[in-house]
Structures
1.
Amino acid sequence: MGGGSDRSITAIGVNGGWFVTTGGAPARSGGGFVRFDAANGGSGGGAPRDVAAARGEGARVLTDSAANASTISPAGAYYPGVVRSASAIAGSLLAMLLASCSKKAPPPAPKPEASASIDPVEAYERTLPTEAGSEAFEKAFHLHDQACTGGDLASCVDLGTDYEQGRGVGKDPARAATLYRQGCDRGIAAGCSNLGQLTDRGEGVAKDPAAAARLYGRGCDAGSPLGCDNLGLDYKDGVGVPPDDARAAALFAQACELGNADACTNLGFMRSTGRGVPKDGALAVQLYRQGCDAGSGQGCHNLAFRYEHGDGVDRSDRLALPLYDRACTLGVAGACDNMGGLYERSAEIPHDMPAAVRLFGQSCAMGDAMGCNNVGHMYELGRGVPQDDAKAASYYRRACDAGVALGCSNLGLLQKAGRGT
């Protein structure tokens, strides 16, 4: 299952950030993430990339809010409409190889707490693996190549994924497109869906939204959950096809029934907003839970957000916290940020400022500019880290440069007070 260009939107990562305003009141905002499909039964997650004002690419996930502009108020929220990331991952064979290699690898480093000597973003980046799974990917590539040469078309599609993602071989989107087309033309549904994603982005082939939608349709008709989900997003946004919310909702439902966790989340969004289907907050909650349980990080995030704000469920930070934690683990940068916010100021959860700093830093490192703003906020106030105006200004500037107006405002207030210069 399934983050630019002029049509790229990815984890905008302004999800639940607290910041300093002239009146001292906190405000919040929001973001998202996505996942993708496979030819041989596997699934994987994509990493967020950059921020854009339009829609995204690849497999996409809808975030839960009717708002589409940032709001500066204690209860304000900003969510982008759609988030996508690119491509497919090799299936069960690769999963087995990764599992076998993991037995030889040392355990992951523990999450460090922020300290005077370690910057929180640097601390998180130090925990990231550098060559994790490289041996397994190389083995998988050679096995996919051998099987494809022997006529296994599903392996040809997985070989295309290897070339697209640079797993065990140098990246070559044109070669990936050829392999995806080969599989698609011979009835491999994932080949059509994956080729659609390359066509959506214009990687290895000419960019053509209408052709991408047709490929998603071929994949969907052949049983690809990703194809149905992506075609649903095309109908929702009117990209490559005429806009049709009812058709989009039906495709999300079809993909959800086929096992695409993010499609369940997307259908939950349609139920939450009443687009294409009757508005039903209770059913939206059920769909977010279904998506979360099946591995949709954004589904976990949307459900957590509802618990945090008492939207359709009883308000509970204690129930929101583990859901944000799971979404953060699944790669939703904004969920890491929201989780940090709970540790900073929740009335139900014991405050833990070092944990809040660590999570804000993780969110920032994952591309969430609001997380960078919040690291600056913690440095400015000396919460969980030694007070440091220079570092506060640096993180506010980083957020500002990434397009977060709150970062620009906080930087201006700091400099106006003659600090951080």
2.
Amino acid sequence: MAVLTVLAAGGGDYTTIATALGDADPGDTINILDESTYSENRLDIFDANLTIQHTASELGRPVIDATGGTHAFQPYGAGFTTYVGLEIKGGTSYTFKKGHADYAKLHVSGCFIHSTPRLNSHTFYNTSGTPSTIKQSVLYFDGTSTGMFVGDGLEISNCLITASAGTDPLVAGYSATTNTASFSTFIHRGSNTGLIVSAWSKVINCIVTGSGMGIGSDDHTYNLLSVSGEDFRNYADNANGSAGTGDVIDTNPLFVDGAVIGPAASVAANYNLQESSPAIDEGTAFDSIVVDITGTARPQGDDPDIGCFEYVAAASGYANTIIGVVAGSLGKILDVATADVSKVLGIE
């Protein structure tokens, strides 16, 4: 299992991601060393269990710009493909296109995926017993259809997932029994009248806000909702549901600045919690998750906060922080005064 390096200006093993993929063997890691923009799309992945990552810097990530193509990646190889510390932009149709049944087997961590209508071309069905994961990432969809279709086998945690348009759910499960969403923030800004989180197996410690109904699930607890329609729908009979243990409804989560939208890499801290947020200390321990989207320890108080950000009670609070990348995760909080905001992960 080799490590293949990519550096756009030369000095690595390859100057493009496509050529590195062409030479990769099963189990290899492709390590992108810089934060250049790689204008590459329709990247075919033929080998099993590849990792494509950027871990070289403390702040910033390479941009894989799929503009002009229908998608960024098309996995054909068996096994899991892992994406770490990347900004993946564009794709006129989606980010990941199905090339093989195993394309649903993926791990996404510390990524910023945006300017695409949806994440996947076909419904993810992962019945391997090892769940796919999307964690500590920001996903911003700008199309009119559902942002993510999932059959089974996906765990979402510590993610900020938003859509700027559309009448369909942000995420939708189909016959799902093993999908979970935890410690995440879902914001729908379109003209949706259906569910924002639809037909999901388990939803816990999440903020769900915006246009449409809230959560469609038979197992939902410790969530905070502020939606335009019904708060809950039962998955089993598609009837209006009631709040579960710890669920809070019709309540503004009080983001630092919840009015701004867009796919720009500016300040993700807009969706941190204000000091008076009703989401603070209202979550519950789940799945041994002990950090938030930035790597900040959970809980900071008596109990963890609901949503993807854990509020830090300090003199400067979260309003003066931005998010950087350390070792492929969103793991370092930096002061705005000393950081380059052009490289910050977030949504404008």
3.
Amino acid sequence: MACHRFAKRAKPRFPNLRPRCKAATQGVPGRRTPKYAGLCYTFHIMASIKRILVTGGAGFLGSHLCERLIEQGHDVICLDNFFTSQKSNVNHLLGRPNFELLRHDVTLPIWLEVDEIYNLACPAAPGHYQYNPIKTMKTSVMGAINVLGMAKRCRAKVLQASTSEVYGDPQVHPQPESYRGSVNPIGPRACYDEGKRAAETLFMDYHRANGVNVRIVRIFNTYGPRMHPYDGRVISNFIRQALQGEDITIFGVGRQTRSFCYRDDLVDGLIRMMNGPDDFCGPVNLGNPGEFTIRELAELVLKLTGAKSTFVVRPLPADDPTQRRPDITLARERLGWQPTVALSDGLVKTIDWFRSIDISEYRPPTPNY
């Protein structure tokens, strides 16, 4: 009887879970309900709840991923050193019983017991990852080694958040996963580009040599609420400058192209990849195939904000890609995933969020924003 009462209490908390054992809730006509039928339902709930580690979990994408996993009922451990992230991104989660926040640097070993790991830890904006390039490389390489070692010990699944930067300044357009890239290994962006490429190598070597269950996604430009106003990304820069009445800074003449994926679509892709078949390690591109020039983006931001800012042109940084667009054929076929939020719709939500915050409460992570 105690097991049946527990099952009834648990059911509203996890409305999406269904009992694996039919007899656990309704019995079988003509038969007595088995003595331990309630345990079937209880154990099924326990088996469905995972303990999940998200490194870089207080960042822009990491905080939204933590939020989604918590809503699904999982126990989430958020690990972050708060270099380019904000504790305010996860303040609203601190009171949740299935959320835990750890201040820790992923380059240092840590011993946790987990079922899944999302490795998102690394500065992602050029200005910030170039501020301390050696630490950026260590974050990608040592961070990968540490989470892979944990996954090996715990027999956990581990997902690497790689980047479209592994393609460098591409000579193939759009970029499929089979394209090996055109990266300058000794340029100012190499600490990030080559660090992420090395992390992918480590993931596949741990998979081949040790049987670790790995997944690799290559993330293209992503945006949305909770972007740090000073993170150095083009969308956050344009919105912040427009709302503060500053001139809009465009590097080059603005003809270089980018593709922008809204955060909800991206988080959905991450979770689909983690929950996908074990025989599909990736890498797989996650991004929106819609392609815009930087000048088109700037004009759209001005239109949506109503700002009267003017454009200021500066020299294009070294090794800055001239074009970037994902081929997401593989994501469509293997994950059933494709983005659904149009750029204009996502920008409206992002601009509304920027209007709702006090930018003076945010500190630039580095002077390079």
